[in-house]
Amino acid sequence: MKFTHFNKEGRARMVEVGEKEDTKRLAVAYGRIRMKEETIKLIKEGLIEKGDVLSVAQIGGIMGSKMTSQLIPMCHNIFISGSDINFNILEDAIEIEAQVRTVGKTGVEMEALTAVSIAALTIYDMCKAVDKDMVIEEIKLIKKSGGRSGEYIRKEAQ
């Protein structure tokens, strides 16, 4: 395995993808934000002062996916054909899953990971007044498809 983001002098570069074929691409990422049970209850009941936490986090995550190339230095600016965020509310945590799609020359793994991260950070921001002990964790790629390297599915996701 070889890193591709270095030039012959060993300095960072953006990889040339112009010769690659356009393919349908999908990436799914996961993350979780742990919090007090009381905070979960406030979110469910719509009692967080800043507003509807999950609606705002959904928009934040989608916006994050669209802005990834502005945040990650060597990430290509790509056309995103679809971006969605789903939440699973547990007793003491909220699970976040992002799905990002494109048709293009490079994948959307970074966009899906950024979407999850920004959604989790948005939840933290909206709830920090009542729970500063929240922990964002387990941000990871679950699967990706398309492109030269084909399909990847994380072992524990199978």
From TrEMBL:
Binding site for substrate: M74, C75, H76, M110, E111
MF annotations from Gene Ontology: cyclic pyranopterin monophosphate synthase activity
One Pfam family it belongs to: MoaC
Subunit structure: Homohexamer; trimer of dimers.
Family, per entry: Belongs to the MoaC family.
Record-linked HAMAP family: MoaC_B
UniProt protein name: Cyclic pyranopterin monophosphate synthase
